[in-house]
């Protein structure tokens, strides 16, 4: 008769300890769990992708190759970093579609893009590398009729032009939305991630000397850049666009990639090596002949930036 209350008390105490232990282990933690970064490395087309693959993968085979909608995603390790490399495809729609596809299908934490671009800044040279801070759309806008009296253009009531026009082309900001916003708003630009820009600045001291046709190539961090679905090879448009945006370079993918990363809250950085002075040359554009070696410059800078990022 004495043992039963004693045993019951022991079991009750044991049960209480177990319950408290269970509560302690199942309670949500306020500390963030460590997530191993997965760095997406993108480029538009074969010369760029080949340069990135050579710089990061070399002759090794990827750990995994996944093909989705005809696009190959190659996953591998680079000096302790998890990397997934794939082409965006050329132009804005392809770049946006592929970036979103990759973010949806893989646990990507950061997006890096390395490739070539046309220079907008006449002080830059072929082979120089730029890592812009802000990306603008230059083709969003309105194409408007001239007024009958030749005094300007017929501007719709809804439209308040934020920029100087180029003839009938009046550029505009783009409407965009993401979680946390009650409705879309006009976005002037999409910014590179500050942490990735800091990594790029740290990487500068490790970038080996780059040259193109005997001229030392310069790497510049910061500034503006523009993108749109146009192969722009017109000197007057280049002069106007440089005046409006003070853009270092122009390409056909980067602002789309930056916008998708902004919408998904993924840190993004774009590295562009200059293949030509867009429309500034006499005769045929040089990009077809410079794209190979110039792509290698962007890939080398990408490699050194990646070495500065968390593992």
What's the number of structural domains? 1
> Under CATH, the topology is which?
Rossmann fold
Please indicate the percent range of residues in DSSP E strands (runs of 2 or more): 25-35%
Q: What is the fourth-level CATH superfamily?
A: Nucleoside phosphorylase domain
Molecular shape:
globular
Mean pLDDT: 90
CATH class: Alpha Beta
Describe this structure in words.
By secondary structure, this protein is an alpha/beta fold. It contains seven helices and 18 strands. The protein has helices at residues 3-26, 46-56, 92-105, 194-203, 235-245, 254-264, 287-307; strands spanning 38-43, 64-68, 71-78, 81-87, 110-119, 129-131, 134-137, 141-143, 169-171, 174-176, 185-187, 190-191, 211-212, 215-216, 219-221, 224-227, 247-251, 268-277. The strands form four sheets. Strands 1, 2, 3, 4, 5, 6, 7, 12, 15, 16, 17 and 18 form a twelve-stranded mixed beta sheet that branches. The longest helix is centred in the first third of the chain and has 24 residues, at 3-26. It is globular, with a radius of gyration of 26 Å.
Descriptive tags:
27% strand; 311 residues; two-stranded antiparallel sheet; Rossmann fold; alpha/beta
Secondary structure: elements and pairs:
Blueprint: H1 3-26, E1 38-43, H2 46-56, E2 64-68, E3 71-78, E4 81-87, H3 92-105, E5 110-119, E6 129-131, E7 134-137, E8 141-143, E9 169-171, E10 174-176, E11 185-187, E12 190-191, H4 194-203, E13 211-212, E14 215-216, E15 219-221, E16 224-227, H5 235-245, E17 247-251, H6 254-264, E18 268-277, H7 287-307
Parallel strand pairs: 1-4, 1-5, 5-18, 6-15, 7-16, 16-17
Antiparallel strand pairs: 2-3, 3-4, 5-17, 6-18, 7-12, 8-9, 10-11, 13-14
């Amino acid at each position: 008769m004495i043992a039963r209350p004693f045993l019951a008390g022991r079991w009750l105490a044991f049960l209480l300890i177990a319950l408290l232990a269970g509560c302690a282990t199942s309670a949500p933690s306020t500390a963030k769990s460590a997530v191993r970064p997965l760095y997406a490395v993108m480029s538009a087309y074969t010369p760029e992708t080949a340069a990135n693959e050579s710089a990061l993968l070399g002759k090794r085979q990827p750990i995994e190759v996944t093909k989705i909608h005809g696009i190959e995603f190659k996953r591998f390790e680079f000096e302790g970093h998890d990397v997934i490399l794939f082409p965006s495809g050329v132009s804005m729609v392809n770049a946006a579609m592929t970036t979103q596809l990759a973010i949806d299908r893989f646990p990507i934490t950061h997006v890096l893009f390395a490739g070539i671009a046309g220079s907008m800044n006449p002080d830059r040279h072929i082979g120089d590398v730029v890592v812009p801070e802000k990306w603008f759309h230059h083709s969003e806008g309105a194409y408007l009729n001239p007024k009958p009296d030749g005094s300007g253009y017929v501007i719709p009531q809804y439209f308040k032009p934020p920029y100087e026009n180029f003839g009938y082309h009046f550029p505009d900001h783009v409407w965009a939305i993401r979680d946390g916003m009650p409705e879309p708003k006009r976005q002037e630009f999409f910014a590179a991630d500050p942490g990735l820009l800091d990594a790029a600045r740290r990487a500068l001291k490790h970038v080996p000397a780059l040259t193109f046709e005997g001229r030392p190539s310069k790497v510049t961090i910061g500034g503006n850049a523009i993108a749109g679905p146009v192969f722009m090879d017109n000197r007057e448009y280049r002069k106007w666009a440089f005046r409006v945006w003070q853009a270092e370079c122009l390409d056909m993918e980067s602002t789309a990639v930056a916008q998708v990363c902004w919408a998904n809250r993924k840190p993004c950085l774009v590295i562009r090596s200059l293949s030509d002075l867009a429309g500034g040359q006499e005769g045929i554009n040089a990009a077809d002949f410079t794209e190979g070696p110039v792509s290698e410059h962007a890939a080398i800078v990408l490699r050194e930036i990646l070495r500065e990022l968390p593992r």
